[in-house]
Amino acid sequence: MGKNKITRAEDYSAWYNNLVKDADLAEHAAVKGCMVIKPYGYAIWEAMQKELDQRFKDTGHENAYFPLFVPKSLFEAEEKNAEGFAKECAVVTHYRLKSDEDNPGKLMVDPKAKLEEELIVRPTSEAIIWNTYKNWIQSYRDLPILINQWANVVRWEMRTRLFLRTAEFLWQEGHTAHATKEEAIAETVQMLDVYADFAEKVMAVPVIKGIKTENERFAGAVDTYCIEGLMQDGKALQMGTSHFLGQNFAKAFDVKYVTKENKQEHVWATSWGVSTRLMGALIMVHSDDDGLVLPPKLAPIQVVIVPIYRSDEELELVTKKGDEIFNTLKAAGIRVKFDTRDTHKPGFKFAEYELKGVPLRITVGPRDLANNQIEIARRDNREKSLIDADINSDAINNTLDEIQKGLFDRAKDHQETHITSVDTWDDFKEALETKTGFISAHWDGSGETEQKIKEATKATIRCIPLDNKQEAGACVFSGNPSTQRVLFAKAY
Amino acid sequence: MGKNKITRAEDYSAWYNNLVKDADLAEHAAVKGCMVIKPYGYAIWEAMQKELDQRFKDTGHENAYFPLFVPKSLFEAEEKNAEGFAKECAVVTHYRLKSDEDNPGKLMVDPKAKLEEELIVRPTSEAIIWNTYKNWIQSYRDLPILINQWANVVRWEMRTRLFLRTAEFLWQEGHTAHATKEEAIAETVQMLDVYADFAEKVMAVPVIKGIKTENERFAGAVDTYCIEGLMQDGKALQMGTSHFLGQNFAKAFDVKYVTKENKQEHVWATSWGVSTRLMGALIMVHSDDDGLVLPPKLAPIQVVIVPIYRSDEELELVTKKGDEIFNTLKAAGIRVKFDTRDTHKPGFKFAEYELKGVPLRITVGPRDLANNQIEIARRDNREKSLIDADINSDAINNTLDEIQKGLFDRAKDHQETHITSVDTWDDFKEALETKTGFISAHWDGSGETEQKIKEATKATIRCIPLDNKQEAGACVFSGNPSTQRVLFAKAY
């Protein structure tokens, strides 16, 4: 980390900002609210993309690409969706610059090049896509349409944080069209499961699957399903959403199909997305005061080999062994780096790879080699051990699997021990003041109550968990009858 | 193809437009000048991306991501670059919409949300990237920087054609920074070679490597290297460019480094890019009047199995064999599809896969199976043959390799037989009227002559080939002395 190391306990927010910069993940761009994703950060995002993309294809989806710009008249067609995003839209109004005669060498917008209709830079692509699907769908034979897009989107945010909330971000957005309501709901749930599986198996981040309340629903959706993660500071982060859109967009864009029975029906829709925000979750769930901690499945470098030597003779010895280990692990498909730089000392390298979150470090030194041993050090729990220098790639792979599992178990334990069940308003407030994490409480189901609780405490309903058990109770705020508990938390 | 099939001979341009639509590659979007890349087209682009990305990484480059928007003040910093792109820039001027009180349900640009400084939607990213590199580069130890970005860019074009020229397109742009001029030139040439290798080995499209004249150079470059392909109609297509930028951007953005000798020097730069335009080249070089012809290395489906049957008994027989072939080829890593649809007849399927350019079709029918044989049909040369029904995946892979090579050889032959060498202006004009392809002619090296030739004939200098031999001659237009021939052509 930087010279003035700030710990999580001191200032979690500053710790996060420093870590993102110090570990070379991303930085603020010259454009307000936008970020530059640096090569090390982008490599992690690429690993996420690869895993997600495979899962989308395994569930029958294909990728396609739709335009960046949405004409205003299309954008406003689905009124709730338009209203939901209108306040944060970047708008293209002109298509040309010209020389500024009053300022030689400078340019100005050419007033003669004003667009007849303004173009919105997509904040999400339902409008442009459903306007396209209209031409693709005539009969039940054209359904389902199962398409995903990897793209950049823009939502003009005033308060931004690297990865968590930026004006431009990268994401994928799935947009599917179905003949029946049941099929569309099944798709919505399937993609939520894909996200949850990815979060838990690949990111090692446990999530709670649930449904959003009406207040928190995607603008234009009938139901928004979500996965919610819990960060180390006890705040929740919405990590992905899958929307059942009903026939809202089909009606707005007049998309009908002829059924097998030769009737005209509106099409049913879903959309679902995850974004570079996942990078924020990954960082905040696993990392510590010394830097990034990465699950092996997403680490650009899974194993780093650091040589220790004083003499030329020792250099020759450790280089030979280092090369051998490098080749063995590389042949086994492990992402391995042998750091042979002679410009940096081992101590510097140790700190650097800790900061970068490399899951496993192998140190090759003459003293251990004399006993035909090498040292392995785990980034997750800091355990060091000596192993046979004739390295076995299966053993290393097993250790990487253990690290992957260990990170998940630790995060899962944190999540489970940070859900507080309360039954009164006083207990609710006290839990918010003295504890962190989710609060499980009865709620009367009204948006008004939800809004009042938010205003009083800043806590929002993160979701109604899918696996909720039904139980009679009284709303923690209004005292009105309730049939189930919901999860509240302060959130990013 | 559609009902009103147009051949290449009748109208090459209409043939191309129809093919792009009929083969489900792309279509015009509701946004003027933009396109929707459909799943089948996008799958080919993804295959291109994968191959290119691997080559970039193999040559030491990393991916990163920079913002979509460029503040006007940064955009205009490198004056030639700014001037070159100013006339085709989409400009964001506002960041919010509001309800239009005069038109209930409609939105309007909120005049209160006008940006202090306009944002340009990137037509290319040199400006935003060099403004960032300024902060990344202090010393020679920070060099080289070898970064690539996969992104969308916008250049406002009035006359657009799917894939060849669209307002928004997808591309990759490499941006590298070096300590010395020699290193930067070596990088420029290396990436040109990467592009040429990709075009020839993967796309099966032969290219000519060369340098652009000053008139055709990238705005802001010292030298623009290019690969030029020749389409079946004899027009040239610029398929990729690699620019040596000298110190132009380093000076515009004040990017200096401290040398080993402790001196301050400006950094040397390159940039290089290929785009979805490559899709246009791929289509135009190989396809025929019956549809797309794809090289196996880029075909989303390399082999399709079509069953033929009349009775249930025959269905059972061909399904068993079809499954067996499918599993064998899939296990060998071949992208294979077994089309078991009972809603379409074999003849329909044959035409469909011809249209989609699937390189190899296997037909499994009871008559051939009685002799333990199946029929294979090559898309490239229409050859059919009977082979042993106990399929050998090596043999199929060999056939795919032959198709890949056959396509390249055919295109190479077309290219070589369409270069006409002329020495007089009359011969130059006659060649343009009676022949297609490149014209190799002496040129006096002046931009004025080049411009006059263009005005008189529409032919432009495509490039000065890198492997040119030096020979004394007289400019075909001006009669002034010349040291080498250059390649002219009408171009897309």
What do these coordinates show?
Two copies of one chain form a homodimer. The first copy, chain A, is α+β, with helices and mostly antiparallel strands and 492 residues long. Chain A has three domains: 12-66 and 123-286, Bira Bifunctional Protein, Domain 2 (BirA Bifunctional Protein, domain 2), CATH 3.30.930.10; 303-409, Anticodon-binding domain (Rossmann fold), CATH 3.40.50; 419-489, C-terminal domain of ProRS (Translation Initiation Factor IF3, 2-Layer Sandwich). In chain A, 34% of the residues lie in helices and 27% in strands. An eleven-stranded mixed beta sheet of chain A has the order 3-9-10-16-13-12-11-24-27-23-22, with helices on both faces. In chain A, helix 2 crosses helix 6. The longest helix of chain A is centred in the C-terminal third of the chain and has 24 residues, at 393-416. The radius of gyration of chain A is 26 Å and the shape is globular. The interface between A and B is large, with 60 and 61 residues.
